[in-house]
Amino acid sequence: MTRVKICGITRVQDALAAAHSGADAIGLVFYGHSPRHVSIAQAVQITDALPPFVSVVGLFVNAEPAVVREVLAAVPLDTLQFHGDETPEYCEQFDKPYLKAIRVKAGVDLLQCAADFHAARGLLLDAYVEGVPGGTGASFDWALIPESLALPVILSGGLDAHNVAAAVKQIRPYAVDVSSGVEAGEGINTLKGIKDAAKIAAFINEVKHSEL
Predict the structure, then answer these.
(1) Which of 99, 101, 105 is nearest to 129 (CA)?
(2) Of 14, 91, 113, 126, which residue is the catalytic one?
(3) Residue 18's closest CA among 173, 186, 195, 185?
(4) Is-catalytic flag, 91?
(5) Taking the model in full, what pTM does it have?
(6) How many separate domains does the chain show?
C-alpha cells in the first residue's frame, strides 16, 4: 500500500482534513524562506490537534543544528526531512529517523545518493528547480529513477489527483508526497500553505484506487 504524506501544512483544519481523508503523515516546514513556513507555536497547535497514528515530519533546509534541536525540544516530530545540502553526518547527528530529499535532474546519481545516505529511512525525490529547495509544483522525468534503489522512494514534485495514479502504477514508490497539488486556488492563484480538503480527499482516493 502506497503511503501518503501531505506536506506544507500550516493550519489545524488542514491537518485534520488530511488525517480524516486517510493521510499517513503530514509535513511541517521549518524553513523561513518558504511560504509554507510554520513557527514552533503553530506546529505545536497543529500536532496537538492530530488524531492518533498520523506521523509528523519536520522539513529543514540547511538549518543550524541548534535550530533543529530547538524544534525537536518543543514539537513531537516523528521524522526529520532534509531538503538542502546536508551531509550524511549532519543528518545523523540528531538520533532521529530522517528522509533525505534529492532534487532530481539528468546527471544526478540516485544510486550513489542512496549509498551515501544509507542510514536514511528513504529518499524523497523532488524536481530540480534552480535556487528553490522544494515545494515548486514542478515535476521531473520519472524515467530518471532507477528500477531498484537501496532505500524506499518517496515520490514528490508536481503530483496532484490527475497524475498520482499514473505515478504510483509506473514507479511503485513506498510513498507519495504532495503540497501544492492539494492547495486552494488554481494555477498562479494557488494559495500557498492553504490546503483544499476536497483536493486532499481526491488525491488520497486516487492513490488508493491505483492499487486495486
Answers:
(1) 105
(2) 126
(3) 195
(4) no
(5) 0.93
(6) 1
Q: Hunting for cell 532534487 — which residue is that?
A: 103
- Report the pLDDT value the prediction gives residue 197, as an integer from 0 to 100: 98
Of the two residues 114 and 128, the one the predictor is more confident about is 114
Averaged pLDDT for residues 144-166 = 94
Q: What pLDDT score was predicted for residue 186?
A: 81
Separation of alpha carbons 31 and 36, rounded Å: 8
Whole-angstrom CA distances from 83 to 94, 99, 156, 212 are 16, 9, 12, 33
Q: How far apart are CA 210 and CA 212, in angstroms?
A: 6
Strand partners, 28: 58
Q: How far apart are CA 44 and CA 75, in angstroms?
A: 6
143 DSSP assignment: G
Q: How far apart are CA 120 and CA 116, in angstroms?
A: 9
Active site annotation includes 7: yes
Which stretch of DSSP H or E encloses residue 154? Answer: strand 153-155
Which of the following is catalytic: 7, 91, 113, 160?
7
| CATH for 200 | 3.20.20.70
pLDDT computed for residue 179 by the predictor: 95
* Full residue range of the structural domain in which residue 10 is found: 3-209
